[in-house]
């Protein structure tokens, strides 16, 4: 069964987070705010000893490619340079290629060109957007995008809240292209997003 054929109910997480350790302070705030709103977010510090004994390459590949509805990628020069985030990005791109809708939600710390992120992609600019505000935008995207079939998975109490017209779909598709990889895209209402451009773990600091 391909990743795109998997049931939405097989997706364990609402969102996973991919980042370099240098941006952990910002990501900590994002992850904590999402969890406070009952979003099921994959973040290493929420797992305690849950990763003990796991083959991390296989484990993260499964989370990035199969187990999450969305992936927030925190783009930076550090992200591009690190071995672990390189492995993560390969899995993320594979999922995005096979995914029918938007999967990657980019948050940018600098002007690094990340392979596969097109120049038509809009993102949250972390240089001008506080972490709590970025988390709210991610949360709004999640609650405004029901999974295929219209069903919501487990742990959805907060996600039943309907967004206002102003909040609706902050990461919506801006441009459609022939390539499947262009589902790595977002729309920027009211200038919130800068021009282009969960699975976080302690190994992201490598």
- How are helices and strands ordered from N to C? EHEHEHHEEHE
How many whole angstroms does the radius of gyration measure?
Answer: 15 Å
Helix content: 25-40%
Stretches where pLDDT falls below 50 for ≥5 residues?
Answer: 1-9, 152-158, 160-168, 173-206
Number of strands: 6
In short:
By secondary structure, the protein is of the alpha/beta class. It has five helices and six strands; from the N terminus they run E-H-E-H-E-H-H-E-E-H-E. The longest helix has 16 residues.
How would you explain this protein's 3D organization?
- This protein has 206 residues and is α/β, with parallel strands linked by helices.
- It is 29% helix and 14% strand.
- It has helices at 24-36, 56-67, 77-81, 83-98, 131-143; strands at residues 13-18, 41-42, 68-75, 104-108, 122-125, 193-195.
- Strands 2-1-3-4-5-6 form a six-stranded mixed β-sheet, sandwiched between helices.
- Strand 1 (13-18), helix 1 and strand 2 (41-42) form a beta-alpha-beta unit.
- Helix 1 crosses helix 5 (131-143) and helix 2 packs parallel to helix 4 (83-98).
- The longest helix has 16 residues, at 83-98.
- The protein is globular and about 40 Å long.
- The model is unreliable at 1-9, 152-158, 160-168 and 173-206 (pLDDT under 50).
